[in-house]
C-alpha cells in the first residue's frame, strides 16, 4: 500500500520522535541502522520530511535530527505519508491500473474506495505520539 520510502519515513519519524522525547538528536547513520535502511536512501527520505516540516535537521558536530516535543502529538501519519508519497495512496487503483475511476472502474474499484476512505481516516486521526508511545512499550520494528 505504501511505498518503501514511505514505510521508512514512518519508521524514521517514530524513532526520531522517541529520541526527541528523551531530549536527544539522532544522526543519519543511527536512524538508518535502527530502521534497517540504506544511508543514502534514508538521507533522501529525511530531507523530504524536513522540507515538509515533519522534523528538524541541525548541521554540525552537535547536529542531527529531532522533532520538537510539542509537535509530536500534533503530527499525524497523514502528513508523513503525504510528504513522501503524496496523495497517491488515496487515489491509486487497487490493481495498479493507470486509469481507474467511477466511470471506468477496475474489478476492485468499488470495494477499494471504502478501504481507502478508512485508511485516510486512520492516517488523519493517528498521531506520531501514538506510534511513539507504542514503541516505548514494545519496540516492534526497531532493532533494540
UniProtKB/TrEMBL annotation:
<dbReference type="InterPro" id="IPR036390">
    <property type="entry name" value="WH_DNA-bd_sf"/>
</dbReference>
<protein>
    <recommendedName>
        <fullName>Rrf2 family transcriptional regulator</fullName>
    </recommendedName>
</protein>
<dbReference type="InterPro" id="IPR000944">
    <property type="entry name" value="Tscrpt_reg_Rrf2"/>
</dbReference>
<dbReference type="Pfam" id="PF02082">
    <property type="entry name" value="Rrf2"/>
</dbReference>
<dbReference type="InterPro" id="IPR036388">
    <property type="entry name" value="WH-like_DNA-bd_sf"/>
</dbReference>
Amino acid at each position: 500500500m505504501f511505498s518503501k520510502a514511505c514505510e521508512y519515513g514512518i519508521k524514521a519519524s517514530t524513532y526520531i520522535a522517541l529520541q526527541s522525547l528523551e531530549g536527544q538528536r539522532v544522526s543519519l547513520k543511527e536512524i538508518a541502522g535502527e530502521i534497517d535502511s540504506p544511508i543514502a536512501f534514508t538521507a533522501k527520505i529525511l530531507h523530504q520530511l524536513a522540507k515538509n516540516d515533519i522534523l528538524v535537521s541541525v548541521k554540525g558536530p552537535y547536529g542531527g535530527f529531532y522533532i520538537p516535543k510539542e509537535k509530536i502529538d500534533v503530527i499525524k501519519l497523514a502528513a508523513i505519508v503525504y510528504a513522501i508519497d503524496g496523495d497517491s495512496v488515496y487515489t491509486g487503483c487497487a490493481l495498479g491500473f493507470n486509469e481507474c475511476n467511477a466511470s471506468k472502474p477496475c474489478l476492485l474499484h468499488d470495494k477499494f474506495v471504502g478501504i481507502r476512505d478508512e485508511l485516510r481516516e486512520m492516517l488523519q486521526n493517528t498521531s506520531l505520539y501514538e506510534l511513539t508511545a507504542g514503541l516505548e512499550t514494545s519496540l516492534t520494528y526497531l532493532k533494540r
